[in-house]
Amino acid sequence: MKGLLLLVRRSLRQHALSTSVTVGSAALACGLVMAVFSIQSQAREAFTGVPVGFDAVLGARGSPLQLVLNTVFHLETSPGNIPWSLYEAMRSDGRVETAIPYAVGDNYRGFRIVGTTLDLFRDVQVRPGEMLRPAPPGRLFDPTLREAVVGDFVARRAGLALGARFHAYHGLDFDESQRHAAEYVVVGVLEPTNSPTDRVIFIPIEGVFRLERHVLRGGGEEYEAKPGEPIPDEHKEVGAVMLKLRSKQAGFLLRQEINNQGAVATLAWPVGLVLAEFFEKMGWILRVLELVAVLVVVVAAGSILASLTNSIRERRREFAFLRALGARRRTVFGSIVAEAAAIAALGSLLGLLVHAGILGGAAVVVRAQTGIVLEWLRPHPILWIAPLGMVVLGALAGILPAIQAYRTDVASHLTPTS
Amino acid sequence: MLEVEGLKKSFRAPDGEVTAVVDVASFVLAAGEQVALQGTSGSGKTTFLHLIAGILKADAGRVSIDGQEMTALPEAGRDRLRASTIGYVFQTFNLLQGYSAVENVILGMAFSGRRDPARARTLLERVGLKDRLDYKPRQLSVGQQQRVAVARALANRPRLVLADEPTGNLDRRHAADALALVREVCREANAALLLVTHDPGAAGSFERVERLEGINRAAVGGPA
Fold first, then answer.
1. What is the pTM of this model?
2. Which domains does chain B have, with CATH numbers?
């Protein structure tokens, strides 16, 4: 056994260049397959199981998925607005525990601004027992003033610390020319939640209504808020109403009433299921990604095979010497298979670093784009399945060159004639 | 110690013609005995050694080493017997280039299950390479490489050392030194030595010299 290990160790060192290349390709392949499975799993879990604090979203007639992505994950565009009266109806509906209005459509340096009410901070738990709270010494905004409470990520990335002043920009994409005149002051920075909320700027909903160039169509006709004058409710409109329901049955009934019998609005319920259905529909793309990653592993195993097969030609004399020294055929065979497995194992170890690197990079991008946090070292079965599979595939790839080595004719590769 | 009886080996040429290379009726080597085997090029000397070592399987006949019949064993058994009882010195030394001197010697015992790095170092010291233990073959002179090969041949405490033209690649002075060394270390280890050479000078120092043509009917019949 020690003899075999010596052979493997020496051969790996002797063929350092090809060893490095094949170990590198195995590492990239293994890291890639681990990253694909891991990111896919974490993304799915994050989007379908992220704590959002709401059971349902009521919005304009259209795609429930778009509604959820827009209001919960602050991605995508809004499908449109619904009259304030629908918010009021939900608020007074006995089946609804909490109804929070969202008015969207503005940003600050790409971070979305959501106009809402203080109910969001009083009635909604992001996780059980965990409210959206400004970190001391911050406070919630005064609904009558131009004050803002910002998510932790926005505060850090956009430099919106406590006391900072900023202007909202019209639209969801940052455009310098679309600046609104009204200036807001940051009075609170929310404690981090590791959820999309970290990327949002909350201001009083009245503030959104009153931003210049904002035209309200809640009553069917266009209305622009006038300074100093109250806005009649019939003109108000909201992008969505975030709902917490009292029971599942309430969800069934409301969905039936709004989606099937109504024609004005859409109820996305339950939020998690909407996204789960999305992932189901996207499943084939994920399968293709997984397949590509697995194929890359197979290609890496092929590179081990090619590398060893090439080296066997020049090592036949070496095998003959070893056989002359008493090495059995199976020792030579085993040394090649072990060498292939060792290359794969080294690749797998480095693959963990590649995986961590890819995940680290992806985590930064995903966090910046969605507010969702991917964990570098979150345990996943792929983290042991991929390295194990790589080693097994590597060993299998070593069998063909091992057979060639096994068949080496000793006498003809030693000094053949006197 | 070594008994050969009726040993035969033929090879089939690409054109299908079968040529007898070895046809030895009887050959015996006593324990610790040193014999030089001479023969012309192509007379079957190397094949004879390969048959004794079990590297080649004989067509017929018997090779017995210390009472163990090499020719009756399957390949794995022959490998095992070779690893435990035979040391081999080649004309071209056949050192493994990626391994240091001491590792080459360790390989000489690695397959007999008697891996002993300390013994490998002692053997290299014995052949005058105390300060070259970690040198790779390419960093050693030709004479030093042959010394490593000698040390490797003795690493597994062999009962029989087969040396195939061990001085063939050396100049006259180094050849004499190498020959003396092989004989000396075999004597110290009480290993029998069968040394093949076509150099009359090398053979001249042996008490017993055999002409291959004298024992090999195939060689008499014509070179292989």
1. 0.74
2. 2-62+70-97+158-221 (3.40.50.300)
